[in-house]
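Project outcomes to date are best conveyed with an example. Our students and postdoctoral researchers have been running inverse folding experiments weekly, and each run begins with a structure described purely in tokens. The record below, which covers 275 residues, was selected by the lab manager from last quarter's runs and is presented without edits.
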């Protein structure tokens, strides 16, 4: 018998995909705690979603703040059954051109933040069960020139998620699922100002997703947990084939980058015409 939805936390939900995922969870009947490093954005999102929606300023790099969010939702909703690690940052360019604090920020938010959220959620879900959904990226499955450190942080998030899922099963814990959703480029604030950034070209080389398409994919994974879901599925297949033959895949990357640049230029021209 299905239990009714309980408490849910979404990180980085002050804007972009996270805000839409928080709305999805409210619609599915969860008591939602909207969190973001930008406390004001978290408050605005929560207020817009309804009077019962909670909010908190949470920096996912800080495990004390993450644990406090976990304890708060468990106390308010009685039980935590869903945790969405969505917070993420992207800075483009070759790793050697990035400042050390920029490289560190991406690794800490995207990888350590996912570790912190997952560990906090597991502690609350043991015995009662639950689902941890990690928003990763196609960049977690394949090389991404122009986004090397971002890709490293997302590969770390996938490696950690799948290894921890295996650890749960080895420990006989079957009531907790971990799912990773790996979207192609999404038209959110993360990409809005990158039409003129050649280092972001690969994000524009496949199917630039509307956030609603990713929300749909997440809804399906919430109904049926899966370790890895690439969105769209054909891009997942494409990057996995390229990974299986790395020399071939690396040779094909310049073509994909050139395609991404063409799409960027087209979109830039269109937005200039609109004024
Ligand atoms: N936009 C894309 O093309 C794309 C593609 C694949 C995956 N993703 C992933 O989707 C997720 C959501 O991205 P988005 O496109 O909505 O980006 P976004 O930049 O619009 O939103 C990211 C949110 O994370 C918050 N955040 C940043 N640092 C934080 C921290 N230390 N602690 C807590 N919150 C923090 C920001 O304040 C922001 O509200 C990210 O994990 C991103 O890597 C994005």
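After processing, the design step wrote out the following sequence:
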């Amino acid at each position: 018998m299905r239990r009714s939805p309980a408490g849910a936390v979404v990180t980085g939900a002050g804007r972009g995909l996270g805000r839409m995922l928080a709305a999805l969870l409210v619609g599915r009947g969860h008591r939602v705690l909207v969190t973001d490093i930008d406390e004001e954005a978290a408050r605005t999102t929560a207020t817009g979603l309804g009077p019962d929606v909670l909010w908190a300023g949470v920096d996912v790099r800080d495990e004390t703040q993450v644990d406090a969010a976990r304890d708060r939702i468990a106390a308010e909703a009685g039980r935590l059954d869903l945790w969405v690690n969505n917070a993420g940052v992207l800075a483009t360019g070759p790793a050697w051109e990035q400042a050390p604090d920029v490289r560190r920020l991406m690794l800490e938010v995207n990888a350590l933040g996912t570790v912190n959220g997952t560990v906090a959620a597991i502690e609350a879900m043991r015995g009662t069960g639950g689902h941890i959904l990690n928003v990763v990226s196609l960049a977690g499955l394949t090389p991404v020139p122009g986004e090397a450190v971002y890709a490293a942080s997302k590969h770390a998030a996938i490696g950690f998620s799948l290894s921890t899922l295996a650890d749960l099963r080895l420990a006989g814990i079957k009531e907790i699922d971990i799912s990773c959703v790996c979207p192609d480029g999404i038209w959110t604030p993360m990409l809005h100002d990158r039409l003129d950034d050649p280092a972001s070209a690969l994000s524009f080389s496949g199917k630039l997703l509307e956030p609603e398409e990713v929300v749909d994919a997440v809804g399906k994974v919430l109904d049926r947990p899966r370790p890895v879901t690439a969105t769209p599925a054909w891009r997942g297949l494409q990057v996995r084939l390229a990974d299986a033959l790395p020399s071939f895949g690396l040779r094909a990357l310049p073509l994909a980058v050139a395609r991404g640049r063409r799409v960027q230029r087209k979109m830039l021209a269109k937005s200039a015409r609109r004024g």
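The domain at 7-274 is CATH 3.40.50.720 (Rossmann fold). The chain has one domain: 7-274. The training component of this project remains on track.
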